[in-house]
Structure formats: C-alpha cells, structure tokens
Design a protein that fits this description.
Elements: H1 2-23, E1 40-48, E2 52-60, E3 75-80, E4 83-87, E5 89-92, E6 95-101, E7 107-114, E8 118-125, E9 132-143, E10 149-158, E11 166-175, E12 178-181, E13 183-184, H2 190-195, E14 201-203, E15 211-219, E16 223-224, E17 232-233, E18 238-245, H3 247-263, E19 285-295
C-alpha cells in the first residue's frame, strides 16, 4: 500500500508539473553545466581499537563526480601521541595501510603530503571501551499503529560522569547467516530523545551517574505470527555492540543523517534543505575518527 501511494504521488507530481509547463507562456533555460572548482584533497579513515589503520586518499573535484578517484602518490605519515610512528604503505586505489594496531586512550594523527597540494592533516583520540551488563531482550515491547508488536533490548553500561563521552549502540541481527543492523523504532529513552535525531549515537549529557540503563525499541524488518497469536515482528539472534566513539565520529554520524535527509528526501515528509558533511581534516575534506567497542554474546530472543 505504501509503495502504491508513493507511485501515485509521483504520478500526481508529474501531472502537476506538466500542467504548470503547459499553461505557462514563459520558459527559462536552466543551466545544467556547473563551473569546475579546484580539486581538494580528501582523507577518510575510521579507526577501530584492536585493528590496523587504513586511510583512503582522494581528490574532490566537479559536482557530477560519482566516485572519488584514489591517489597512490601521496606520502602518509602516522603519529601516535604526537610521536612519529611509521610511513603508511600504498595498497592501491588510494588506500594506505599501517602495521600499527589502534589502542584506546591514544591520539592518532595523519599528515598527508600530496604533490602540488601541500600538507593535509587530521587527528583523533580513541576513547576507552565501556562495560556492558544486565542485557535483557524484550520480545514484545509495544505495538505499532497497525497493532503489530515490536521488540526491545534493555541494557546497562558504564559511564565516565566527569567528562563528555559519546556512544553508539548497534543491534547486530543475524538473519539467515548474514548480519544487519536493526532499525530503532518508537524512541522512548530520554537520553536518545535528547539527541533530537532517530539515531543510536548519543552523548552522556543527561547521564549523571557512573552507569546508565538504556532501552531501545527496534524493528527487525519482517513480520510473522506465533501459535496463532497476534502478528508481531519476527525475532532473530543478535549481538549488542556498544561503541565508545570519538567526538568527530559523533558529529559525523549526526551530520551524515541530515546530509542524507536533504539529499534523498522522503516525498512529502522530509526537508529538501541541503546540509554539509562534517569534516575534521585541515587543508582538505574528509573524516578521521575512531572508536573502541564492547560486544555481547549472541542473544536469542524468545516469546514466552
């Protein structure tokens, strides 16, 4: 039904636009060629604790470029806690790799030299991982507008109350051998509501203690029924991952949601306002951010 409504709305939009052009006696040529701007270096990397570092180097060019072409002639220097560590190795297609394993509570910086563009730099600090406990799977947490039930997860995690911290909760569902991230539904947790966006990335702004218990309602993507009972969201085994993320990770995730909302608006609902992507790269564009994480055992939710 929803797909039919979208198609019908699209048809009506075409008719309205067509009618506007039909009844208009004036026409104006819209310029479709945009002036090219000077290419700008782009550095992208997400650092994960206990993993090796990979950095992608490219150039941002004209507006109609769909894929950024990687640069292999760059020199990428890695610094750890402001001390030179190593020169990253080119793996092709703009990817540079290190032999350094990322550790929490350390600062990582990349200085990139590209012929003709000078030095581009970026840095981030990796927070320490939190602790998870008291994980509870709730098979039926509520019902949607159509009367179908949805599940939730409730868990407690440690928090550093004397400094600003940032987190991301990810419900990694295991469905038919593949893994996907569950979507949140009907946000009720005050910490998540305080963020103002339908994301599981959040700060500890409202958390005043050394631990916090969070509840996340979610949707698994499919419906079923159990023993002739009411229709409900199908349940799948999942792993709860709680990431302690850097400030730049937090800002990028929020801004990317707004960027995507403006770029791919839902007809009749979303805003068509354009938003810029967050960048913490000096003398260039891109994101250089990191995180550490704690992961639960596989949880198998069941209807009681």
């Amino acid at each position: 039904m929803r797909l039919y409504n979208i198609r019908l709305s699209a048809i009506l939009l075409i008719v309205l636009i067509g009618g506007q052009f039909y009844f208009s006696s004036c026409r104006k040529l819209v310029q479709s060629d945009f002036t090219d701007f000077a290419p700008v270096p782009v550095v992208n990397s997400f650092l994960s604790a206990d993993s090796l570092i990979k950095v992608h180097i490219s150039l941002a060019s004209k507006l109609d470029t769909n894929e950024l072409k990687g640069l292999d002639n760059a020199q990428v220097k890695l610094y750890v806690d402001d001390v030179f560590k190593e020169l990253l190795t080119s793996a092709g297609n703009g990817v540079f790799t290190s032999t350094t394993i990322v550790e929490p509570l350390k600062k990582y910086e990349c200085k990139v030299d590209i012929p003709g563009y000078g030095t581009v730099s970026c840095s981030t600090s990796i927070p320490k991982p939190s602790h998870l406990r008291d994980i509870t799977s709730i098979a039926i947490a509520g019902k949607d507008q159509e009367g179908m039930t949805y599940p939730a997860i409730k868990f407690t995690f440690s928090n550093s109350k004397n400094k600003k911290c940032y987190y991301e909760a990810r419900i990694r569902m295991i469905e038919y051998g593949s893994e996907q991230i569950a979507d949140m539904y009907n946000i009720v947790d005050p910490v998540l509501l305080n963020e103002g966006l339908p994301l599981s990335v959040f700060s500890n702004e409202l958390i005043t203690d050394t631990a916090y218990t969070m509840t996340i309602n979610y949707f698994t993507g499919s419906y079923g029924s159990s023993n002739g009972g009411p229709t409900h969201t199908n349940l799948y085994p999942f792993i709860l991952e709680l990431r302690s993320v850097s400030y730049d990770y937090y800002q990028f995730a929020r801004q990317k949601y707004l960027y995507d909302s403006g770029r791919f608006p839902e007809f009749g609902l979303s805003s068509n306002q354009a938003f810029q992507l967050y960048s913490n790269v000096k003398n260039g564009y891109g994101i250089f951010a990191g995180y550490s994480s704690v992961i639960s055992d596989t949880i198998i939710p069941q209807y009681k």
